[in-house]
Amino acid sequence: MIWVDAVLQGVLVGGLYALFACGLSLMFGVMRIVNLAHGDFAVLAAFLAYSLISASGVNLLYAALLTVPVFAGFGYLVQRGLLNRAISSGPLPPLLATFGLSVVIQNSLLQGYTADSRALDPGRIGTASLRLSGQISLSYLELLILGLAVLVLGGLELYLRRNRTGRMLRAAADDRDAASLVGGDPRHLYGVATAIAFGTLALAGLLFAARSSVAPSSGPSELLFGFEAVVIGGLGSLWGTLLGGIALGIAQNVAGQADPAYTLLAGHLLFLLVLILRPEGLLPRRSVTA
Amino acid sequence: MSALLEVRGLSVRRGQLLALRDLSLAVEAGRVVAVIGANGAGKSTLLEAVAGLLRPERGGVVLDGTEVTALPAHRRLRLGIALVPEGRRLFPSLSVRENLLTGQYRRRPGPWDLPAVYALFPWMADRAAQRASALSGGEQQAVALGRALLANPRVLLLDELSLGLAPAVVATVYRTLPQVVAQGTGVLLVEQDVSLALRRADEVHCLLEGRVELSGSPADLSARQIETAYFGIRRESA
Fold first, then answer.
1. Is residue B211 one of the residues assigned to a domain?
2. Which residue stretches, if any, does this entry annotate as coiled coil (chain B) (predicted)?
3. Number of folded domains in chain B?
4. What is the pLDDT of residue A135?
5. Residues A89-94: contacts with CB within 8 Å, 24+ apart?
6. pLDDT reading at B81 higher than 50
7. Residue B145 falls inside a structural domain
8. Range of B112's domain?
9. What are A184-193's pLDDT values in tens digits?
10. How many independent structural domains does chain A possess?
């Protein structure tokens, strides 16, 4: 029974990994940018929400409703102001730029908030749980997180398929010049992709902090989980990313059940195993083109 | 007489090479102008510079009296210059229908919409859900043409429609040109197949090493003149 519980907990946390990773996948798919600061931006969002909540006393829901759109706008500006310039001179400058941002964010957070980890209080939902049997109970908060993740990934999938701008994002991913020949401004489309990525990473950052806690230095390890979810699932497929996140979550939780020391190792081993046996991932590209 | 599209003294550099030298030509509404020339004569460079993918070193592009030389490709499309690029450049991961819909992203008002393109190429409606990369070369060329038409361009630029396609397929694509021109669209096309260009165009310019070597209406040009200009062997005294 405890093994069933471990698997279920793995599924729940996997949804959050996928939510966090979908922006990573989108930015790489559309612009070939690997955002090394992805995790640090998520942590930054969590800390800003923390400050907002402590200063004004609003609850987590309102903090999220404010933080997510602000981060989406911020993402658009980062793309237009910084990454678009970097990308025009080759693949290396954007990598270096995001690496630089990662260092800047981590150290600024360290300066402003000390090295302590902080948690966001989700309210009553944080302690309530759905009891399935004597040994298995699912936290409502984690169920909500999984639901949100599925909702966001599904919405994003729908946006990329049905919306005209979403369709242009896929077109620009295929062929940037051809997209400009049908009237798409690549700088704007790239901005939209990054805005989506930043909105989703901000939401994921807040949820990370609500279900456990985040510290100024947690960004890179979150980034690693994100990468692993994307690669396990198959580059460029949103449902693949969800599957990858869930596979990663299950591997970590089941191994952690056997011995907590193996939690992270099991995730990395699964990642390496997939790279060796099925390098295209579990569900290779379908929606966003990589 | 003011032309719909004017290319004024265009010089374009490609790397070390000056691919176009002081080239001028004009396209009027409802007319088909063809540019012929050997490989490397600068034909594709001309179209890419007109579409806005390349910046000229000197000279300019004027659309209906508006100077567009400084504008990038996506802005020029919104003003009415659409290019069907060499090699078609469809979006391989998008379906046929989705490829066509991208043409509507920043469309101008006009007669071309999805039903009109399906009427032009009836097979497209049946295969709308297929991936563009699953089509044959000729079918892809037709989709690329449809995608450009959906923007309702005032000037349509066609780069080597015939390249790599069977003559029968090329003929079906070219057969649609009169319907395009009938809407008042000006067509500037580049073609390696000289006889095809002569048959379809109202006016022909022959390019040699980035310069216009010979111009005129197909009826006025002799095969000998064209041959001379095309290969640049014996220059006629001028």
1. yes
2. none
3. 1
4. 81
5. A91/A32, A94/A31, A94/A33, A94/A34
6. yes
7. yes
8. 5-231
9. 999 999 999 9
10. 1
Nearest to B4 by CA among B192, B220, B156, B203: B156
Q: What is the 3-state secondary structure (H, E, C) of A129-172?
A: EEECCCCCEEEHHHHHHHHHHHHHHHHHHHHHHHCHHHHHHHHH
| Residues A140-165, mean pLDDT to the nearest whole number | 95
The answer as to whether B237 is a domain residue is no
- Look at B78 and A175 and tell me if their CB atoms are within 8 Å: no
Of A164, A173, A174, the CB nearest to B105: A164
Least confident of A118-122, A146-150, B163-167: B163-167
Question: What average pLDDT score do residues A229-236 get?
Answer: 90
Instruction: Tell me the residue range of the domain where A87 lies.
Output: 2-128+137-277
Domain harbouring B61, CATH code? 3.40.50.300
**Does residue B236 fall inside a structural domain?**
no
pLDDT at B11: 96
Confidence of residue B231 (pLDDT cuts 50, 70, 90): confident
Q: Does B163 touch chain A (CB under 8 A)?
A: no
Supply the CATH number for residue A273's domain.
1.10.3470
Record: contact A186-B89, CB cut-off 8 A = no
A-B contacts (CB, under 8 Å): 77
| Per-residue tokens: B80 | 């009415």
DSSP-derived letter for residue A214 is B
A15-31 mean pLDDT: 95
| pLDDT value at residue A290 | 35
Taking the C-alpha atoms of residue A17 and residue A25, their distance in angstroms, rounded to an integer, is 12
Spatial contact of A87 and A93, defined as CB atoms under 8 Å apart: yes
The answer to the question of residue A235 being in a domain is: yes
The answer to whether position A284 is within a domain reads no
- CA–CA min distance B221, chain A (Å): 34
- From the list B99, B92, B66, the residue with the least C-alpha distance to B80 is B66
User: What value does the mean pLDDT take over residues A56-68?
Assistant: 94
Nearest CA in chain A to B52: A181
Mean residue pLDDT of chain A comes to 93
For residue B206, the number of C-alpha atoms closer than 13 Å in the C-beta half-sphere is: 23
pLDDT tens digit sequence for B90-140: 999 999 999 999 999 999 999 999 999 999 999 999 999 999 999 999 999
ipTM: 0.91
Give the mutation candidate from B91, B97, B104 for the A interface (greatest A CB count, under 10 A). B91
The pair phi, psi for residue B32, each rounded to 5°, is -110, 120
Q: Are A122 and A60 in contact (CB under 8 A)?
A: yes
Contact B86/A at CB under 8 A: no
